[in-house]
RNA sequence: GUGGGUGUAGCUCAAUAGGUUAGAGCACUGGGUUGUGGCCCCAGAGGCUGUCGGUUCGAGUCCGAUCACUCACCCCA
């Protein structure tokens, strides 16, 4: 037997059955984000490796061991994007978009790549909905961004998720806190897990979200980031909270939430679920005011988030199904002579805007009816030689189980008259059978 | 990268302590009066038991390797 080529590990096919979910999520994302003034931008999947090393951080796991990096035919180091922010910032700088007063809020939807061991909710090619805003440091925007995220999640029908927020401080206050924390961790070093013992040198803040009990205990009495915020950061964070509170958006301050990309500062946030096993973050983001400058652009503040579409859809699918498009009309044909006329009729109906499926290869009327039923067609148009001679067709309403004869020349009109209510793809989530 | 679990029909699963021709449900195809769907009944098709090697008279079953899937660590969306 011939050996079969399989898909690359961790990279999934999205089959027609699942596509309605993806389309629903994407359409809702576009609708909601544009309501808040975001405009779509599309950047390449491949960038120079350097872009990610400089933005995400050389010592982060993503850059150190998870990137799909390769040299092209001319020896230039490239990488498949592991996230979207760096690319959007790059594009903003490259096209000098700060000159365009309309270009401040962006979104992009597409695949990202990280070479991790796949597991539930974590794949090597995965998809994100990503939003970024440049040039606004008003805490009102931080709040609006989170409100928008919650608004979106609510509209697609995701209820039981929690918004966690934190502030990571800024270059004015974080370094001194970092030193305090380092000193503290130095004393507790013997009781830390090996990972954290390493982390306390490289990225001490990350010790906070270690899940090992030992480490959690060792951290009691540790200096708190939120107590060390400078005046500006403290005021900023306070305003964010008060704006959120003002709209009645439930949130939780989580001082342990530290994010894994180096560029984050001040406001960070995550949307958490307890229904996805280990991968509990459905979406997350934060402020990155120094990033654009570090990438050689103007010194503009930035903030953004990313939503993991696979995780989102896993949650939405739990116990529910979403129906795909069904044809309005199924053309059933009897006898060779009727085929051409049926084909012509189907084409005329399609041009009038109806979805039409045909009985290819003929078969008994019974089998054709069965197929129409499986496809969930609203109507079956039956054309046999007998009807053909009289210039009519039988139109059967599958739901009503009623049928009548309609002149072939009047078919398009017949369907256009009852258009509006019956037409269109059913797009509603349904309970399982 | 590290550990655990699982690979039998398109899907979900069976197959007594190794023992003849590997079964069932769903799905699929055809039929149950001539040209009418869902329910029901009948029939049919569909598998080198992930792959390679080993033990044995004999392997779906035991052993090893490999690949894949899966869960967890790690990391993150």
With helices defined by DSSP (H or I, 4 residues minimum), what is the helix count?
15
**Overall pLDDT level:** 89
The computed structural class is alpha+beta
**Strand residues, percent:** 15-25%
Q: Fraction of residues in helices?
A: 25-40%
Q: In what order do the strands lie side by side in the largest sheet?
A: 1-5-6-11-10-9-7-8
Our count of domains comes out at 2
DSSP summary, beta strand count = 18
Question: Which fold does the CATH topology of the largest domain refer to?
Answer: BirA Bifunctional Protein, domain 2
- Spans of at least 5 consecutive residues with low confidence: 420-433
Architecture of the largest domain in CATH?
2-Layer Sandwich
C-alpha Rg, in Å? Answer: 28 Å
Overall geometry = elongated
Q: What is the CATH domain class of the largest domain?
A: Alpha Beta
CATH homologous superfamily annotation of the largest domain: Bira Bifunctional Protein, Domain 2
Cα end-to-end separation:
40 Å
The major sheet is characterized as: 8 strands, mixed
Short overview:
The protein has helices at residues 19-35, 49-56, 61-65, 85-94, 139-155, 174-188, 194-202, 213-218, 231-246, 291-294, 309-317, 336-351, 365-374, 385-390, 411-417, and strands at residues 39-40, 46-48, 69-71, 77-80, 105-113, 125-134, 162-167, 252-253, 265-272, 281-287, 302-308, 321-322, 329-334, 356-358, 379-384, 392-397, 402-407, 429-430. By secondary structure, the chain is of the alpha+beta class.
């Amino acid at each position: 037997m011939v050996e079969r080529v399989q898909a690359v590990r961790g990279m999934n096919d999205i089959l027609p059955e699942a596509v309605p979910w993806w389309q629903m999520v994407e359409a809702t994302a576009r609708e909601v984000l544009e309501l808040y003034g975001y405009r779509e931008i599309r950047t390449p999947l491949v960038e120079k490796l350097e872009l990610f090393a400089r933005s995400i951080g050389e010592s982060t796991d993503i850059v150190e061991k998870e990137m799909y990096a390769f040299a092209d035919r001319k020896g230039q180091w490239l990488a498949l994007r592991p996230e979207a922010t760096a690319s959007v910032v790059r594009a903003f700088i490259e096209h000098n978009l700060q000159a365009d007063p309309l270009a401040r809020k962006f979104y992009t939807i597409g695949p990202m790549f990280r070479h991790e061991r796949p597991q539930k909710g974590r794949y090597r090619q995965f998809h994100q909905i990503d939003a970024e805003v440049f040039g606004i440091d008003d805490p009102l925007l931080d709040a609006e961004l989170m409100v928008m995220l919650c608004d979106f999640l609510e509209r697609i029908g995701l209820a039981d998720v929690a918004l966690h927020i934190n502030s990571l401080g800024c270059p004015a206050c974080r370094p001194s806190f970092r030193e305090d924390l380092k000193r503290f961790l130095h004393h507790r070093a013997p009781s830390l897990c090996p990972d954290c013992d390493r982390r306390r040198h490289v990225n001490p803040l990350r010790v906070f979200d270690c899940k090992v009990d030992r480490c959690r205990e060792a951290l009691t009495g540790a200096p708190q980031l939120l107590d060390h915020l400078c005046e500006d950061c403290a005021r900023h964070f306070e305003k964010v909270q008060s704006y959120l509170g003002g709209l009645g958006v439930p949130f939780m301050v989580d001082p342990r939430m530290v994010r894994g990309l180096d560029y984050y500062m001040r406001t960070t946030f995550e949307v958490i679920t307890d229904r996805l096993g280990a991968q509990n973050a459905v979406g997350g983001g934060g402020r990155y005011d120094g990033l654009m400058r570090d990438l050689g652009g103007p010194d503009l503040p930035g903030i953004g988030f990313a939503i993991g579409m696979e995780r989102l859809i896993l949650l939405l699918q739990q116990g529910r199904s979403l129906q795909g498009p069904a044809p309005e009309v199924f053309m059933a044909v009897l006898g060779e002579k009727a085929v051409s006329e049926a084909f012509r009729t189907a084409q005329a109906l399609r041009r009038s805007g109806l979805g039409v499926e045909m009985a290819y290869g003929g078969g008994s009327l019974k089998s054709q009816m069965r197929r129409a039923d499986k496809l969930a067609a609203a109507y079956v148009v039956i054309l046999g030689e007998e009807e053909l001679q009289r210039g009519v067709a039988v139109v059967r309403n599958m739901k009503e189980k009623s049928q009548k004869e309609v002149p072939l020349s009047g078919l398009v009109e017949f369907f256009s008259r009852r258009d509006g209510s019956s037409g269109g793809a059913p797009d509603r989530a349904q309970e399982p059978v």
